[in-house]
Amino acid sequence: MLERFGLLPFFLISLGSTSIPAETQQLLGRASVVDGDTIEIGGRRIRLNGVDAPESWQVCQDGARKPYRCGKEAAFALDDFLSKSRPTSCKAHDTDRYGRVVADCTRADGTSVNSWLVRHGWAIDWVRYSKGAFKADQIAAKSAHAGIWRGTFELPCQARASKSKRKSAC
User: Fold this and answer.
1) 111-149: buried (b, 16+ CB within 10 Å) or exposed (e) per residue?
2) Measuring CA to CA, which residue among 30, 46, 42, 33 is closest to residue 92?
3) Are strands 88-95 and 26-29 parallel, antiparallel or unpaired?
4) pLDDT tens-digit profile of 108-153?
5) Strands, DSSP E only, in 49-146?
6) C-alpha closest to that of 156 among 82, 70, 75
7) Overall CATH class of domain 19-153
8) For a tag site, which of 45, 110, 115, 119 has the least CB within 10 Å?
9) φ, ψ at 90 (rounded to 5°)
10) Organism's domain of life (predicted)?
11) Domain ranges, ordered by start, for the chain
């Protein structure tokens, strides 16, 4: 009977092991927060497209110049936001150099996760990748002194460059 099907079973097995292009991936499930702009669904790390949140170790200053762990606050805010409407759905666009899927994500209620982070001041519009998609959200966050905009902060891309002693990718 195996002779009748020839190489078909091996072909089907090999299809199952090929990776689907990132552009066509749709990820859906309960999201775990890794940091302010990275989540995980079903074991896949997802970098939120076009936004840049403070690093977990990053310290900012509030309006009274008091230091606070803005990176941790951004991650906690994202976790709280995602917990209120599950599951999270992500449409992949690419894979970054760290192997993370780069995606636009929404909560079950249809709210854009990427946009929410910027509008509430927990991430900046990373124009290099967003092409200004979150410009209005960032203007709203700045004028409301929301999140990191309540004081002063170093751009996350500059903070990473300073820590690694590399050229900024801003």
Assistant:
1) ebbbbbbbbbbbbbbbeebbeebbeebbebbeeeeebbb
2) 46
3) antiparallel
4) 999 999 999 999 999 999 999 999 999 999 999 999 999 999 999 9
5) 51-52, 60-61, 67-68, 88-95, 101-106, 124-125
6) 70
7) mainly beta
8) 110
9) -130, 135
10) Bacteria
11) 19-153
